[in-house]
Amino acid sequence: MYSDLSGSAQRPAVLVATYFGSPGPSLAALAGTGVEAIAVDLVTETHTVDAVATTPGLQGKLLVAGVVDGRNVWRTDLEAALGSLGTVLGSAAAVAVSTSCSLLHVPYTVAAETAPEPAAAEGVRSWLAFAAEKVEEVVTLSRALADGREAVAAEFGRSAAVRAARAADARLNDTTVRTRLASLRAAGTGRAAAADRAAAQRDRLGLPLLPTTTIGSYPQTGAIRVARADLRAGRIDEAEYVRRMQAEIADVVRLQEDLGIDVLVHGEPERNDMVQYFAERLDGFLATDFGWVQSYGTRCVRPPILFGDVHRAEAMTVSWITYAQTLTERPVKGMLTGPVTILAWSFVRDDQPLADTADQVALAIRDETVDLEAAGVKIIQVDEPALRELLPLRAADRPAYLGWATGSFRLSTSGVEDDTQIHTHLCYSEFGDVIGAISDLDADVTSIEAARSRMEILADLNEAGFANQVGPGVYDIHSPRVPAQDEVEASLRAALEAVPAERLWVNPDCGLKTRGTEETVASLRNLVAAAKAVRATL
Ligand code: GLN
Ligand code: ZN
Questions:
Q1: Which of 165, 195, 249, 262 is spaced 20 to 30 Å from 299 by Cα?
Q2: Which amino acids are annotated catalytic?
Q3: Is the Cβ atom of 511 under 6 angstroms away from ligand 1?
Q4: E runs forming strands in 123-260
């Protein structure tokens, strides 16, 4: 294709930008075409530097050398980057210094962060490079090439000093966390056989067949937004904020009791975001004030920055869940975000394997599950909606990823007794390469999207050997449309073709945070009525 494109007689010069890893064999193929320039990511896979240096056919071209990482938020090791540039310099007609990919994945500038640094993250800001700072690094490196290393000695010196301080920082090496993790990994993170757990949980929970539940959040009301804004602006204190959130929780509990739902939730009113909420409470994370990046469309998020060893100083969710539990006789499900999702929606450190960072986060979540259990919570959901998001682009890299990702989830959920029921929620139904991983999570109950694919996914799950309980979403929350009772009944009957009643749960296909109250109440009413109608036929 690029030969055809570059074969055209009258055309502008063509630059092919490859990124998010090594171009692999495509580099030599591209070099054999008539394109004028090729951009290569030289940081994600360091072997790319040598591959570029030994690829014939680049001699006539411009090489755009991506030596500044465009996806992370850390200052570049300028010395190493200059070394890479030196290695590839002779391989092309000209070398341009650049970032490894476009800068839309990182916030605009660190200079916008002017509020005092929180004590636990003091100094961390100096380690960071957002888009503007990365561009400065590109310019510095280009000057080093053009004018010599001496011309930028001051910039190199400052950068090296900051990086050295970061590397030596005690917060990156917490012996207590590391020792605990090592001994846990050695002890193993399995639970009893799933069938035995299911039996113990059945006895303890006494739920009906086809139990009804929701995924966690309830509609974010105006009152919740006002309370958060009031707290931020200092118009109310923490105690008043807690009181207002408890009022929201009480409303949601009463609503669920009125509707006749079997397993209740507290509704998550206190969570601004399901990752940010935890990052704000864990050591090792830094939040930004203006570090916005695009999530999708016009939605933007401020991913937290995971800079050090992660440690949970105190319980993060127990008081909310136990408050909700005081209001009802029915079980209230504890609600946590899983380690892989916390990683996927944060900027992560680049000085250790992702798997190690994931396990540190998992350890903190595990501590929370143990505290919830000790506080009397019988069901705990650990959400992993981003499990598929981190899946490597190359098929060959996927098994290793899925191995540590599911291992990390099990680390976070295996600290509880057999009769404590672990739920997880995955935000999609097209599993493809991750279908085997669903079994490997070994959650007692897994809720997935299935409404839009008409329950077809259940047969695939069976085929993949999945034998635990499952809650295929019976209506699509991504639309304001209220599903009719007989529609939900039809979905449940379709689900029962693939899954025995003992293993089937009834729930919407995702959290209700973005929905209006009216449509939510109407939908859940039909959901409960459908579950009861089908239950009566079993
Ligand atoms: N528990 C979360 C909620 O209900 C799950 C959100 C998600 O699936 N992304 O909002
Ligand atoms: Zn979801």
A1: 249
A2: 478
A3: yes
A4: none
